[in-house]
Amino acid sequence: MGLYRLLEHTADIGVELEADSLAELLRQAILSFHDLVDFEPDGPLAGREHQISADTVEELLVNCYNELVFLLEQRLVAVDARILACSETELAVELLCSTLGPEQGLREIKAATWHQLEVTHTTEGWRARVYLDL
Questions:
Q1: Which domains does the chain show, CATH number per domain?
Q2: Are the CB atoms for 122 and 101 separated by under 8 Å?
């Protein structure tokens, strides 16, 4: 079981993530996104498979959030996720997305940043902190 907590920061917003596994940590990152943009899903969800890759686990987390930003630019918000495969450099995930209506305005997220980025793995599980540029 994982959790996330939103953090306020000047011109940014941050997320602290905790989970027993890396897969759950990345799932919590995805789940946090619709809270970050102040979105409440309304209507059917459509599954979309995505492959996200990186050279490091930190880059994987940043790329995961940036994939969600890309979807938001297409008027889609991921509200749930099913992890298909996960390593420290690869994520295969089915994102359950809701389409934004033409009248729905959300908090604008520009990108995930490397500022104060942390991803740690201990015997107790995984922890991360990431900030997103508003």
A1: 3-133 (3.55.10.10)
A2: no
Give the three-class secondary structure for 109: coil
Q: 28 by DSSP, 3-state: which?
A: helix
pTM for the model? 0.89
The dihedral through the CA atoms of 21, 27, 30, 34 has a sign that is negative
| DSSP label at residue 60 | H
Q: Write out pLDDT tens, residues 58-111.
A: 999 999 999 999 999 998 999 999 999 999 999 999 999 998 877 676 778 899
**Contact criterion met (CB below 8 Å) for 36 and 15:** yes
